[in-house]
Write a structure and sequence with these properties.
Blueprint lengths: L11 H15 L9 E8 L4 E8 L4 E7 L3 E8 L3 E8 L4 E6 L6 E5 L1 E7 L3 H23 L1
Antiparallel strand pairs: 1-2, 2-3, 3-6, 4-5, 5-8, 6-7
Helix pairs in contact: 1-2
């Protein structure tokens, strides 16, 4: 316990790296029903989560939000397959749709939904913990 008091706290880069690796390792392409040609899911060192889906019909969906806006998360599914809902504090998720039947659309949302697989309770707890730590660190930097 005494030694832990003098250890360096983890950096935002470590939290971001963990989230990026976890989202990449657990992303479930099988839930996309063959409609998605490819996807990009990145968590950046400057505190953003960016998720882009390229559909077979040419449509593209892009979601982005600042990790400091994280509010809560839910998971619906089993340990084999499910959807991770990441909620923000308000309309903080940028949503852009390109080459859709209705044209290009820019809007805002309160959540991002990521299809995942092989998620244990511990994985979900670690994701939440890392998101919360990023929020705290980014808010404390903002205050200073």
């Amino acid at each position: 316990m005494f030694l832990c008091a003098f250890s360096e706290p983890e950096s935002i880069e470590q939290y971001v790296s963990y989230l990026h690796k976890t989202f990449s390792d657990h992303y479930d392409t099988s839930q996309e029903n063959g409609q998605i040609k490819r996807y990009e899911l990145n968590v950046t060192n400057n505190g953003f989560c960016r998720y882009k889906r390229y559909f077979n019909n040419g449509k593209t969906e892009y979601f982005a939000f600042k990790l400091a806006k994280f509010k809560d998360m839910d998971y619906y599914g089993t340990t084999l397959s499910g959807k991770l809902y990441i909620h923000t504090k308000g309309d903080d998720v940028i949503v852009q749709t390109y080459k859709d039947r209705g044209g290009d659309v820019d809007s805002m949302a309160t959540q991002v939904i990521i299809p995942v697989k092989n998620m244990e309770a511990e994985d979900l707890n670690q994701i939440r913990d890392n998101l919360e730590k990023i929020c705290v660190q980014q808010q404390s930097v903002k205050i200073q």
